[in-house]
């Protein structure tokens, strides 16, 4: 392995390393407290300007942003590939999708409605929705360009300003995105980016001038952010980790299911919050289904992310690579069997990047570390079940509750499972579906509030109730004689 992959960062600077080549992408300085304060001041001024525009003008700016994202989508995808090893075919799909997110919000920003409330005769009440003000948007590294659009649009679309803190592993695409917002006609300072490690994210979410928080990342960091939000009485949307189950019944189309399960665990080298990392398969088909998975996994193209034929790229950094390898070793030590992969792909020699072959682990028990904790790598653990009851119990036996997947041809069973699974999203006979119009939020430790769909409006606005006396005559008084 090239030694640059392990290059230490200077105390207040950090180095971004390309996980495929080991080359340095750049050295970045952590934003200072003074820069954070200045960003918040600028954001406050820009937010007033933004909310003071007509909703049509905001809509046009968001639409223009979508066009610019589309025009620059290859450039943005390439920045992510350099920083994180995201394969270019996924990066291009994500950046094109980012443009769609902006189009949807361009159509949504002028449709934020309050309600006219039932009130007594002689009095009228209604509500209006107002933006909170300045949002801190703290992002992970697994979909940097898409995240810098999908997580900023709900606050922006609802009239807020955003200060984005991209991951220290992937700062480039968010910086470019900020430039595009100005070109699109949004006020200077409405979309700002602060570069830094977790300390900068912490200082930002705690800042008294920040009014709302959108955080996407791990559960331990999410807990800290949630505490900071509570201390400052700030609304927060938390999109956290997962350990999502995929349940395969004997009546499923097993070829479809095998393809779906593999895509669901291998996309982005498994570095996806909603990856279906726990396969629960009926004991009658376990051997046949595992064979299908192993046979297909061998055909997955792992390699250079910039090659359009590549399907799975490297892990993002040395720390993540070591963590995933430790999970595999722990599973083996606990008595599980490595049925495919388990280490570097044979065709990629040491020094060619942080690659791990598609890994399938069988004989996995629910109490094993690989069943309980988020791996965030191309590692599928397989556990068998006998009855539907048992499948539900196994699926729900987790602190997480982000996504879930069921494969069966029995429609009634699909609905039964959907009602019983403890997860924010249930998929039937498909791998992960995410779209701007579809809510996406976790149950249990996987999150708080929703980042997508109409549901996202709630956490980005506050409701003001307005009551007016409309009745004629003197003010009715409960105090006679006064
Ligand atoms: P992470 O929690 O380590 O970091 C996320 C972000 O938080 C980074 O920008 C980091 O610098 C910042 N941060 C670190 N400490 C902070 C603090 N004290 N206060 C504020 N910000 C702080 O997560 P990661 O490793 O970058 O990303 C992987 C995790 O993200 C996984 O757990 C994955 O499941 C989760 N994720 C969730 C979703 C979702 O929608 N639910 C989507 C993508 C990723």
Describe the structure.
- The chain is globular.
- Helix content is 38%, strand content 19%.
- Helix 4 packs parallel to helix 5.
- The strands form 5 sheets. The chain has a 7-stranded mixed beta sheet with strand order 12-13-14-11-10-16-17, with helices on both faces. It has a 6-stranded mixed beta sheet with strand order 7-6-5-8-9-19.
- Strand 13, helix 13 and strand 14 form a beta-alpha-beta unit.
- The protein has 16 helices and 20 strands.
- The protein folds into 2 domains: 250 residues, Aldehyde Dehydrogenase, Chain A, domain 1 (3-Layer(aba) Sandwich); 184 residues, Aldehyde Dehydrogenase, Chain A, domain 2, CATH 3.40.309.10.
- With 482 residues, it is an alpha/beta fold.
**How would you characterize the largest beta sheet?**
7 strands, mixed
Indicate the percent of residues in helices: 25-40%
Q: Quick one: CATH class of the largest domain? A: Alpha Beta
CATH topology of the largest domain: Aldehyde Dehydrogenase, Chain A, domain 1
Number of helices: 16
The number of distinct β-strands equals: 20
For the termini, the CA-CA separation is 86 Å
Radius of gyration: 24 Å
Strand content: 15-25%
Bound molecules: nicotinamide-adenine-dinucleotide
What is the arithmetic mean of pLDDT?
96
Main sheet strand line-up:
12-13-14-11-10-16-17
CATH superfamily of the largest domain: Aldehyde Dehydrogenase, Chain A, domain 1
Secondary structure class reads: alpha/beta
Based on Cα principal axes, name the global outline.
Answer: globular
The CATH architecture of the largest domain comes to: 3-Layer(aba) Sandwich
Count of structural domains: 2
The low-pLDDT segments are 1-10
InterPro entries: Ald_DH/histidinol_DH (IPR016161), Ald_DH_C (IPR016163), Ald_DH_CS_CYS (IPR016160), Ald_DH_CS_GLU (IPR029510), Ald_DH_N (IPR016162), Aldehyde_DH_dom (IPR015590)
Keywords: Oxidoreductase
GO molecular function: oxidoreductase activity
EC number: 1.2.1.-
